Amino acid sequence: MPAQEPAGSPASPGDGTGRRRTAVVTGGSRGIGREIVGRLAADGHAVVVNYAGNRDQADSAVEDVIAAGGQAFAFQADVAEEEEVAALFDVAEAQFGGGVDIVVHAAGRMYLAPVAELDLTELDKLHRTNIRGTFVVAQQTARRLRPGGAFVMFSTSVVELAFPRYGAYSASKGAVEALTLILARELRGRDVTVNTVAPGPTATDLFLDGKDEETLAALAAQPPLERLGTPADIAEVVGFLASPAGHWVNGQVVRVNGGIV
């Protein structure tokens, strides 16, 4: 599948070795993933915006980066398809100087239902994207990430909050959390970090859709900070974990939820 040619400034800040730092963000066309694209680009990374189906939103994310003076391009890949994810990494390496330094796996699927009413077809789709997709991306990351790099995956604070109707989704993200420290240990000696960010309720279009004001007010009242999270709140934490300042954090699940317990 064709990739958009990279555009923007001819060079981006490196890591002190003179090389350009490159980031791949899956699910980077909207919501939290899109905010992360902007955050990493502002930090000087050339960014590959992976998307599953909505090219217009991915192109818009790229245009925002370029307008701010950064470098980015969009590439379509199904995260659960090994060959497509391998092609994503191939293009990132070819276009931006031979390697990948940061991978943020923000792509995911949500499906809510009580366990007794669970549509098993939807469960299979959830498993394919959230579990298989995470392993496919993790496999390519483990093979290719350059020394000094960082891999950030996504879970959800619901794994501990245990909200009703979130059983299938929370179970799929529990698998991501279980993988985190194992993969960090498997990459011993590579000088790369593996962490997972687990947001609480965050005001994305997807999250807000279908919820009435009373429900949103109740959710916003839960954390001691008394508001919903924003995509920028989450992107700041990812930016830290992806930076040299966050490189001593490894094998951790970071719950970014304003203090909900």
Account of the protein in words:
The chain is of the alpha/beta class and about 260 residues long. It has a single domain (about 20-255), classed as Rossmann fold, CATH 3.40.50.720. It has helices at about 30-40, 55-65, 80-95, 120-145, 160, 165-185, 205-210, 215-220, 230-240, and strands at about 20-25, 45-50, 70-75, 100-105, 145-155, 195-200, 255. It has a 7-stranded parallel beta sheet with strand order 3-2-1-4-5-6-7, with helices on both faces. Helix 4 (about 120-145) links the parallel strand 4 and strand 5 (about 145-155). The protein is globular, with a radius of gyration of 18 Å. The chain starts with about 20 loop residues before the first strand and ends in a 5-residue tail after the last strand. The model is unreliable at about 1-15 (pLDDT under 50).
Ordered list of secondary-structure elements with their pairings:
Elements: E1 22-26, H1 31-42, E2 46-51, H2 55-67, E3 72-76, H3 82-95, E4 100-105, H4 120-144, E5 145-154, H5 158-161, H6 167-186, E6 193-199, H7 205-208, H8 213-221, H9 231-242, E7 253-256
Parallel strand pairs: 1-2, 1-4, 2-3, 4-5, 5-6, 6-7
Helix pairs in contact: 1-2, 1-9, 3-4, 4-6
Briefly summarize what is shown.
The chain contains nine helices and seven strands, in the order βαβαβαβαβααβαααβ.
Which terms would index this structure?
single chain, 261 residues, alpha/beta, Rossmann fold, 7 strands, disordered N terminus
Strand content: 15-25%
Envelope shape = globular
CATH superfamily: NAD(P)-binding Rossmann-like Domain
Number of helices: 9
Would you tell me the overall average pLDDT?
A: 92
Query: Would you count the extended β strands for me?
Result: 7
- Total individual domains: 1
- What is the correct CATH architecture? 3-Layer(aba) Sandwich
**Helix-strand makeup class:** alpha/beta
DSSP helix fraction: 40-55%
The largest beta-sheet arranges its strands as 3-2-1-4-5-6-7
Quote the CATH topology: Rossmann fold
Which regions have little confidence, pLDDT < 50, spanning 5+ residues?
1-13
> What sequence of helices (H) and strands (E) makes up the elements?
EHEHEHEHEHHEHHHE
Under CATH at level 1, the class stands as Alpha Beta
Distance between the termini: 44 Å
Largest sheet: 7 strands, parallel
